[in-house]
Amino acid sequence: MDLDIQCLNIKKTFGELVALDYLNHTFEINKIHGIMGHNGAGKTTLLRMIGGIIQPTSGTIKVGENLDVRLQPEEIKKITGFLPETAILYKKLTAKEFLEFIGKLRGLNDQSIEEKMNHYFEIFEFSHPHKQMQDLSRGLQQKVLLIAALMHEPLILLLDEPIATLDPMSAIITRENIKRIAKKGRNILIASHIPEFIEKTCDDVILLREGKVMETGDIRSILKKYNADCLEEAYLKIMTINK
């Protein structure tokens, strides 16, 4: 299945606020794409539009040749896993109950749900399935939400600040698993304000400021172009040059 994501002249406004300003970009399949920028740059808005959660004010988002996100949002949601930066949790449910609920919503049968949960519990070293969500630390809640996004084996994976609340070891485990998943013919987009994580995880990056694209390309080429030793240094140079 063709999973290239094409954003064509995307504009999104909230009242007088312009969140994205005529963005044109293609996210190619079999790659991990980073989206970087300051708070309010448009990262979350872009992910939510690609996932069919909100609609652009104008422009078109297409997945492959046949799927138009505006016209077929439910079809997009079926093949997409979404990890929000902040999520509304069912706090009285245990982690296992929460994931069983999500699995049912995704149309998985009981056996598949059990297999997927156990598989990802092991991968993410999660050992608290019977604790209520409200009793888990933010980092452990984040692991549960990651598992929820992955259970139905989505073809498109949208991750908004996936390691923001994780400890260093869990962040490394998450990074390596994202890379592993990408090899299975997936299209993965990661929004993050952590340059080191983007640099070590992603194949390319799009840098946003106030809804506009400041730079885009594979990370090695960007480092070379701006004579930078790391993405953080390149990012600072780009934002200074384009003030």
Walk me through this protein's architecture.
Helices cover 38% and strands 26% of the residues. With 243 residues, it is an alpha/beta fold. It folds into two domains: 1-79 and 155-165 and 184-243, P-loop containing nucleotide triphosphate hydrolases (Rossmann fold, 3-Layer(aba) Sandwich), CATH 3.40.50; 85-153, no CATH class. It has a six-stranded mixed β-sheet with strand order 6-7-8-3-9-10, with helices on both faces. A four-stranded antiparallel β-sheet has the order 2-1-4-5. Strand 9 (204-209) and strand 10 form a beta hairpin. The protein is globular. The mean pLDDT is 92.
Label the overall shape: globular
What is the count of β-strands?
Answer: 10
Mean pLDDT over the full residue set: 92
**Text of the CATH class of the largest domain:** Alpha Beta
Task: Give me the CATH architecture of the largest domain, please.
Answer: 3-Layer(aba) Sandwich
Helix and strand composition category: alpha/beta
Which fold does the CATH topology of the largest domain refer to?
Rossmann fold
Please state how the strands of the largest beta sheet are arranged side by side: 6-7-8-3-9-10
Q: Write the CATH homologous superfamily of the largest domain.
A: P-loop containing nucleotide triphosphate hydrolases
Strand content: 25-35%
Note the total helix count.
Answer: 9
The overall number of domains is 2
- Rg result: 18 Å
